[in-house]
Design a protein that fits this description.
- The protein is elongated.
- The N and C termini lie far apart (about 80 Å).
- The protein contains seven helices and 16 strands.
- The N terminus is likely disordered.
- The protein is of the alpha+beta class and about 350 residues long.
- A hairpin with a 3-residue loop joins strand 14 and strand 15.
- It folds into three domains: about 30 residues; about 160 residues, Beta Barrel (L,D-transpeptidase catalytic domain-like); about 130 residues, Nuclear Transport Factor 2, Chain: A.
Length: about 350
């Protein structure tokens, strides 16, 4: 190629022009494939050891259509997202994908620390263009409920922890600002498993897999706790019932002492009560336990139906099960509304009700 010198260019400007022209030629001649996904090497999602194919903290997935039958399990150490499905009485890993995490290691404690939290979260909102910029979040994102009940109890700050994608030219080893990040084609696959407000995103520091026999042992332990709590409530054995609660218990209306007095008043008011609970969602991570169930309550004076959510924590002072309830919430609904279609934009907010 021949460059023609403009009469207005002096020697210094001419040298600069030659340099810029050469740079432009080099950029133009760079193969397009160098910016494509083929030059971005993603981490390999980890396989699960057989027969230990049950994530240790995934205790129980409900057997009704109100809750999600899928759970997303993320291992920060493994940099992998597993999709777990309830199939009858068993849990199956149906897919696994490479992920990116916060650029800084360790537990998230405050805003802007670029760390990914460890905990039990639920996908709350679906976002795509034009609400989110493609260059930062790819073609789809799901917001979580960070900070959740446990995070707030621990005085953790920050917000905006999402499951989202990135453009294909961005490496999954770059490090995020705390979000869990996957490829565009992966999040498109994941969205079919999402029921907003119900699909858990459980983030572990490291995922430990156990055998089916060990899984059954853990499930029995937590379901025994669940059934013991239900039974003492139904029998109106208030003093045994309150032992399931930690002294730090608090919901939007009552603390531990008010809750105990409230149950004493109801015992004096109602001659009998009946409490029916569906097969629960039970997830444990670190010292945290989340239980969700459909609750049908009836007494001689009152009846209702709704979704019960229990937050519990390990307690060294509890000799029964090793953990106690720190918060309990209830959201009323009609029985005919227990099988909603998967939400498309945002999950409904829950309400507290003693």
């Amino acid at each position: 190629m021949r460059l023609l010198r403009h009469p207005l260019l002096n020697s210094a400007n001419w040298s600069a022009a030659l340099f810029l022209a050469g740079l432009s030629i080099a950029l133009c001649l760079t193969p397009a494939s160098s910016y494509s996904e083929t030059n971005v090497v993603d981490p390999t999602p980890q396989k699960t050891p057989e027969p230990a194919s049950y994530p240790e903290g995934l205790i129980s997935i409900p057997d009704n259509d109100h809750f999600s039958k899928f759970v997303f399990v993320v291992g920060k150490k493994e940099r992998t997202l597993w999709v777990i499905e309830r199939m009858g009485d068993e849990l199956k890993i149906i897919e696994s994908f490479a992920t990116d995490m916060g650029k800084n290691d360790g537990e998230k404690t405050k805003a802007n620390d670029s760390r990914t939290p460890t905990g039990i979260y639920f996908l709350q909102k679906r976002m795509t263009q034009p609400e989110i910029p493609f260059s930062l979040y790819g073609n789809l994102a799901f917001a979580t409920d960070y900070p959740n009940i446990f995070d707030k109890r621990d005085a953790k700050t920050g917000s905006g922890i999402w499951l989202h994608a990135v453009p294909d030219s961005v490496a999954l080893t770059r490090g995020s600002r705390g979000c869990v990040v996957v490829r565009n084609q992966v999040i498109q696959k994941l969205q079919k498993y999402v029921k907003l407000g119900q699909t858990p995103l459980v983030i572990f520091n490291e995922v430990h897999f156990v055998t089916y026999e060990k899984h059954l042992e853990l499930r029995k332990k937590y379901r025994d706790f669940f059934e013991g709590w239900r039974k003492t409530w139904e029998e109106q054995d208030v003093d045994s019932y309150i032992r399931f609660y930690d002294a730090s218990f608090k919901n939007d209306q009552m603390d531990y002492k008010k809750w105990y007095r409230h149950k004493k008043r109801l015992k004096a008011l109602y001659k009998s009560i009946k409490v029916d609970l569906s097969t629960p969602l039970i997830i444990q991570n670190k010292d945290q336990v989340v239980i969700r169930t459909l609750q049908k309550y009836a007494s001689d004076l009152h009846q209702d139906f709704g979704e019960k959510t229990i937050h519990a924590r390990e307690s060294a002072n509890d000799g029964m099960f090793g953990f106690k309830i720190i918060r309990e919430d209830w959201m009323g609904m009609t029985e005919s509304a227990t099988t909603p279609a998967a939400a498309t934009t945002e999950a409904p907010s829950s309400a507290s009700n003693p």
